[in-house]
Amino acid sequence: MRRLKPPTLQQWGCPHQWKTTHSLPQAEPLQRVRRYKCLRCGVRVKTEERLTVPWDERDLVALVKTLLPQGKPVYLREQGIMKLPLYGLNTLLAQLGYVIHAVKVRDPKRFVACTDRHGRVEQYGLFELRRIAEEA
User: Are 55 and 9 in contact (CB under 8 A)?
Assistant: First the structure.
């Protein structure tokens, strides 16, 4: 039996493009198993009725907080991250009251390739997790 693994940062920020495959109909009761695989990031999900996964956005916040302690700027390239779907991550994090603030740097050894809303790549180096100020 295979276990589902929680998604990585790349997979969280991916605008998924699902490829669906179906199993043959089962004997009793008559049902099919659907397997979804994202053609972009490779995350896999298996379901019988509708797409369900054992993780949610709070797991994303916990993952980001381990990489980017709130209020402390970090060079993600030094932690082995070379590509980051920044726009996708910030879209999800904004719903939870957070944003990843990115700053450009001059040192090419610290560049991280970040994708924007249109899929274009920009080079950033210094990242910081910030809480979005609640407007009254």
Answer: no
pLDDT classification of 107: cutoffs 50, 70, 90? very high
Complete DSSP assignment for the chain: ---PPPP-HHHHT----EEEEEPPPPSSS----EEEEETTT--EEEESSS---S--HHHHHHHHHHHS-TT--EEGGGGT--EE-HHHHHHHHHHTTEEEEEE--S-GGG-EEEE-TTS-EEEE-EEEEEEPPPP-
Place of tokens 């603030």: 101
Q: What is the pLDDT of residues 4-52, one digit of tens each?
A: 677 777 778 888 888 988 776 655 555 667 788 888 888 888 776 544 5
